Amino acid sequence: xxxxxxxxxxxxxxxxxxxxxxxxxxxxxxxxxxxxxxxxxxxxxxxxxxxxxxxxxxxxxxxxxxxxxxxxxxxxxxxxxxxxxxxxxxxxxxxxxxxxxxxxxxxxxxxxxxxxxxxxxxxxxxxxxxxxxxxxxxxxxxxxxxxxxxxxxxxxxxxxxxxxxxxxxxxxxxxxxxxxxxxxxxxxxxxxxxxxxxxxxxxxxxxxxxxxxxxxxxxxxxxxxxxxxxxxxxxxxxxxx
Amino acid sequence: xxxxxxxxxxxxxxxxxxxxxxxxxxxxxxxxxxxxxxxxxxxxxxxxxxxxxxxxxxxxxxxxxxxxxxxxxxxxxxxxxxxxxxxxxxxxxxxxxxxx
Lengths: 241, 100
Prior knowledge:
The complex is a heterodimer.
Chain A: E1 2-7, H1 11-21, E2 27-33, H2 36-45, E3 50-53, H3 62-68, E4 74-79, H4 85-89, E5 94-99, H5 104-138, E6 141-146, E7 149-154, E8 158-164, E9 167-172, E10 176-179, H6 183-189, E11 195-199, E12 202-205, E13 209-213, E14 216-219, E15 222-225, H7 231-237
Parallel strand pairs in A: 1-2, 1-3, 3-4, 4-5
Antiparallel strand pairs in A: 6-7, 8-9, 8-12, 9-10, 11-12, 13-14, 14-15
Chain B: H1 2-8, H2 12-38, H3 42-58, H4 62-76, H5 83-99
């Protein structure tokens, strides 16, 4: 449900918009105001998702009104004037521009546009959030799905990860975990600088290296091959004397 | 009345409500317009014409709408050309709403 207000100094215009809104199940009118000042007072105490806003109002124009809002909700301009379309484009919060007199089909199109916009924005926020969580979590730990349980593995406990067909084997100080995933996927999660792919089938925790001999690494009790192409990067990452 | 019928979508109570609002609002808007024209406050009169344009469209007088647009622009420039034509429309509108 989108909470909406109507800001227009004409009673007839407010009545028409209210009537059009009443035909859309997803809209809830929480206020009607004949001027910008009253709307601002309302918005100081209440949150709304959408404002139907007239441009021509006494004292304060619709654009003046938008400029007073620090975080404006979505706005649909409703005006008798076609000449403000260019100015309207300058505002990210303005979703649509309806010219009076407004009829239901055009009104519905504007609402659909608003819903699509809000839905897309919301999806991006979730994606951004997910991405942030992965990044922050990846500095410390990783969750893997084992027998429908999400098991936390601290990065610092991981010795190495080995590719095994459609699975990966994660070896830690205490336990080994076999997970349905790929080396590429876990490599993306292990953003910590401690990890390095040393062979097409192995990612190692360079802090766990015991020694390196020719083209192999002794790490915990495992001997891991080093591929020729990955060797320079490994040597670069080591604190060589 | 075509717009009022269309926007009402068969909702008779809303149609009557809208007509009632227009009957109340229009004479008041015309009065303010006449005051501003009398004071030669063309800027304010242009704002009044702007509002009256909406009433013109609500009452379905499409042909008069464009003339009102031009008159509004004239007033912004301090030009009263089209005044008589516009005021004739206002009279026509007032007569019409009194029949509703």
